[in-house]
Amino acid sequence: MSQIETQTTTGETEEQIRDEWLEYEFDGETALSVEDLDVFYGNDQALQSIDMDIPEKSVTALIGPSGCGKSTFLRCLNRMNDRIDAARVEGTVEFAGENIYDDDVNLVELRKRIGMVFQSPNPFPKSIRENISYGPRKHGDIDTGLVARLLGRDDRDEEEELVERCLRGAALWDEVHDRLDDNALGLSGGQQQRLCIARALAVGPDVLLMDEPASALDPIATSKIEDLVEDLAEEYTVVIVTHNMQQAARISDQTAVFLTGGELVEYGDTDQIFENPQSQRVEDYITGKFG
Amino acid sequence: MSESYGDERANIVAETSAVDQLAVIPATFGAIAFVVGWAIVFRWISVTDTLAGIEYATLLSIGHLLAAAVLCAVGIFSTTGIVDTEPDDSTGLFTALAFGAIAFIGVGLTASQTLGTGATVWFPTSLVAAVLVAGVVLGVPEDLGVTLPVAAFELVVGLVVLTDVIGPSWVWSPNGFSASFVGPIAIAAFAMVGSLLCVWAGTNASKGFGSRGRELGAYALISTYAVALLAILALLIIFVVQNGLNQVLKGAQLWPFKLPFVLNGYGLQYDVNGIFPAIVGTVWLVVGAVVFAVPLAVGAAVYLTEYADQGRFTRIVETATNGLWSTPSIVYGLFAFAFLLPRIQNDVTLLTGQLVLGFMLLPLVLITSREALQNVPDEYRDASAALGVTQWQTIRSVVLPAAIPGVLTGIILGIGRIAGETAPILLVLVREPFSASTPSVLGSFHFTATAPFITNDALLGPATALPYQLFAVITAGVGASQEFGWGTALVLLCVVMFFYAIGITTRIYFRKKLRQ
């Protein structure tokens, strides 16, 4: 254990990442399979050859100190990094048997199936109902416009049903069912965030990516989001980035620890990561010695 | 122990002492003199009018002297410790420089104009005076530095007016200067400058100088400025209404409704000549310009903000649009005359006027739309993209609706400018400024079996516009009286306000839609 002796208090170390730290055996299907993923912002490498298999219908937590690349990694999973000009992604992410970085991938379909919830609640300045039905409307799944009605297609019942289902799915229905036409910006922060989750559910995703969804919320709203995430994992694959290690320990099935430099250091069962981490650096991070 | 606690309390709780009430006198005089000064400038009262048997000029000068005496007393009370104040050790550089500048102007004018000295004398003299005043103000404690210079100014001004050195009949025609300044204006100017100084010094002193005094002094001064600004705006409108209302209401009656000046044309058949053709012309000009410019400008703003790489290209376009916006309007007029006119009918047409005003509107709407689009939070774009919605759909259903209020602000500002422009349409729009016939744009659309299938004689015919008519009245008095011009000005003001009202109402509607 020579690496323990070279360990410094800041977590800077010569420690080599061992392959067995990243091996994670799980039952069930793989939802996303990441292979040799590198991300560069200009000349800076933000992620260093990440390999990771994410099991479906479970909660995967990504933790690590600021700037470790966990959010970058999350944004790679539905190609949101395409929206940043300077970002360059190498490697493969396999979803439903296809590499999502192939040239012929349909981004619309990809993002319909892999939804995303952001750090700060960002509902549109529209009514609650319009926020939910926004995605399906744009994809043509719901049409209540005048032309559609003249042509004999009226999806208003479908819309009502969808709004209720998604709001119930996001545990928001009871609080807002009598004011669906109010502007979403009038909701509290926690309600807005659950509305954003409901909005993401509305396009029928398989995977939900959440980028620190509770970091801007108070403790009560946070615990609601946490309960919700655990419930969602019965139907959806949830990948959640969090700063809060207790949160990761509470809600996730497996945890991936990223450390400074964009390395994935350890990945495994959440209980094992938090009770018996194999990497010294991960142990230092989890016990609060740095990060 | 309890005693020292009581002392500390005294520092926290503001005391009122005699100096507070005393210092209110110059501040109040300042406020009154400010109003009286404006009233004199706008000739609502004359300096020779009397109030309680005393001329306003005399009243003002007595006020000046009273303020001088009180400020002087406050300064001396404060510095001798008769009243409790917290002045700083120095008055501060900025105040010192301001008083220096006043001294420079005062001494310079006196030396050069009254004593008739040449530049070799008056310039060094006033420079020395300025440096002296600034130095003294800088050197003495704040309570003296604030009160005494203002008191000195008030004393001089009060004496000069009271002794009729500069009285109501005084006239000053500077050498080599075609304009001349008359007594009433000088007295009003003294009142206004003095009032600003008095308000500042009085409020400053009433809080016992120091940081609290400066705070209130600055607040009072800035408030006075704000009131002055509003007053100028209000007085401008009142002035136009006063002069124009008679003409607009000439021959008007409620039932049956008649408003001949607004609803008639200009010709022998009318008992009261009117400006209806010009009103309609202005409205069509604005509508045409908006229809032409807004889609283009918003489209360009969307491209530049949402699609184009932010870099040299967008910066060049930005600089170019800013330049276009500041291009003098007569240049647009010349361009329209030389470029558009030969290509459209080779004659003056309404369409050419609309196009050139549209060109003028383009840059402003582009600049403001771009700003509005940039202010739409990126979170909306991210959220929409994460739902798999394409960029164009995102722009159309999230970004543009959120930007509409900002775009409307640009259109409102732009309309305000183009509706009143004379220069661009000077050469391309008008055949007869006082027209009997009204361009009927909507009624002139004709469909034809051959190309171009739709024709519109009104768009391709001459028109007239309110600002042009006003210009014609002023420059040549072409066929119309001065009252006619004032009436036109009032109606033009109303037309612009009407467009504002439309724009602001729409903006309120869209803002509400985004918020609730």
Polypeptide structure, described:
- The complex is a heterodimer of chains A (291) and B (516).
- Chain A is of the alpha/beta class and 291 residues long.
- Chain A has one domain (19-287): Rossmann fold (3-Layer(aba) Sandwich).
- In chain A, 36% of the residues lie in helices and 23% in strands.
- Chain A has 13 helices and ten strands.
- In chain A, a hairpin with a 2-residue loop joins strand 1 (30-41) and strand 2 (44-55).
- In chain A, helix 5 packs parallel to helix 9 (189-202), helix 7 (156-169) packs across helix 9 and helix 9 runs parallel beside helix 10.
- With 516 residues, chain B is mostly helical.
- Chain B has 17 helices and six strands.
- Chain B has helices at residues 2-12, 18-41, 56-80, 93-114, 119-139, 142-162, 183-206, 210-248, 260-263, 276-307, 312-325, 329-343, 350-375, 378-386, 391-419, 466-476, 482-515; strands at 50-51, 54-55, 171-172, 181-182, 445-447, 454-456.
- In chain B, the strands form three sheets. In chain B, strands 1-2 form a two-stranded antiparallel ribbon. In chain B, strands 3-4 form a two-stranded antiparallel ribbon. Chain B has a two-stranded antiparallel ribbon with strand order 5-6.
- At the A-B interface, helix 4, helix 5 and helix 9 of A face helix 14 and helix 15 of B.
